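Let us practice reading a record.
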Amino acid sequence: MWLQSIQQAIDYIEGNLMQDLQVEQLTKITNLSSYHFQRAFSFLTGMTLGEYIRGRRLTLAAQEIASSDCKIIDIAFKYGYETPEAFAKAFRKQHGMKPTDARDKSRTIHSYNKLVIQVQLKGAEPMNYKIIEKDSFQVVGVKRTFSCVNGEQSPKIAQFWQDVNQDGTSGQLAVLIDGTVQGLIGICEVTSKDIMDYWIAASHDGEYTGDFETYTVPASKWAIFEVHGAMPDAMPIMWQKIFQEWLPSHPYELAETPELEVYGEGNPSNDNYYSEIWVPIR
């Protein structure tokens, strides 16, 4: 059912490519939040929602240019471009040519075809996880706010971690860990439709009077996945497996409480480095 809803959203996109598509229309179809839908789409397809829509529109535009005598400017407007210059720039980026060159039958068009979501059964690499229910707990740390449209947050979060490691903040947080959750925690909390707060924090129960901010992670049921491998690659690989393999084959849905990434002690560059992903489920 979960994958079927994503496919229904893709079908809706295909039927409305000439319209001003809004993420809210797709979240109603999938019953997912804007953040979860865009994350699921990206992990399942290997591209962002914006990249897919742009790729499909430019594919159809190229096909129409090659097969008709319509004016380029009219086709540009039809596919959502306000100026011929913006259309030509996007067209060249995808197809490697000017729009008028698409009428040359010897030229090759770079085509993005309609996506069809399929489940791939993979058993060679087991996913180790456990399900727990945990009461709310307090953390102390630092946060930044990001846009999560089309995955914009990912490189900025990586920079955030680099900053706290370089300026000594991560070391200051590490000494505050009280044992509730072992390791530094990356907390992703979506605060509005496309805006998220990302915390780098340590679990620390009881009164705190230092300079860091405090935050209460709400009570939730969690699927906790073991992650073995060097950063930064190991974490996104496991997230992809969760969306591509685990969620489609289990009866759980994503809950709206924050997602956690827990980074243990040791050298993150080592191949045997241990970390965890905490997925809130219902």
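A brief commentary: The chain has nine helices and eight strands.
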